[in-house]
Amino acid sequence: MKNMILGVLIAMATASPVPAQTRGDAKPVSIVLVHGAFVDASGWKSVYDILTDDGYEVLVVQNPTITLESDVEATRQVIARATKPVVLVGHSYGGAVISEAGSDPKVRNLAYIAAFAPDVGESVFELATRPTPGEASPPLLPPADGFILVDPAKFSTSFAQDVDISITGFMAMAQVPWGLGAVQPKLTRAAWKDKPVHYMLTTQDRMVAPSTQRFMATRAKATLVELSSSHAAMLSHPKEVAAFIEKAAVEGN
């Protein structure tokens, strides 16, 4: 009996090991997620879970949103950690960040979600203040000490009106101040001019006017998808956002 058990143990020890399945191994690209203003990277959690469950390596940038330069550098550092060619995804102000950081040769294509896509020599401020007759304007408080906030009393109905109030009420109080050093600088690069672009336009957006989104998407010659969503699409429609990103990843191959 002892000899039988010993034989089984030896056979188990010498058998060819089954390789452990690691997230991302099955896909040829890495996905890097870049958040926008007033929030942090935790808003990507549901989308992150879907993408990793589908086999993608997903990396998430935590931008301080104090200056555009520091956010671009933070994004480049995360791109450098990716093990495969990168699909770079930006939400809202994060679109400006990926427009600049996306010139990195490791970045294969870009995906914008309700995002700013400035041109060279253009700032987020210029795009955010384009006339949009008949469309809602974001309820921003006047700058204080070089930073901007959304009016907390209007955050829930403007930033994410289709997200549960228990979440948006907390988000309003936990806002990350948006630095004028991120809003006002003009871009020196516009990666969307040279790389494939996908754009998700959120038709119920009260922070970045849908007409402005359409202008930017058209200018970038983007593959356009429309979603009936607030500005916070990754919170209210994570499945649709994940599907959009995956489509961008596949079509960029």
UniProtKB/TrEMBL annotation:
Gene3D superfamilies: alpha/beta hydrolase. The keyword Hydrolase applies. This is Alpha/beta hydrolase. InterPro entries: AB_hydrolase_1, AB_hydrolase_fold, Sec-Metab_Biosynth_Hydrolase. It comes from Ancylobacter dichloromethanicus. One of its GO terms (molecular function) is hydrolase activity. Residues 1-20 form the signal peptide. Keywords: Hydrolase, Signal. It comes from the Bacteria. Residues 31-243 form the AB hydrolase-1 domain.
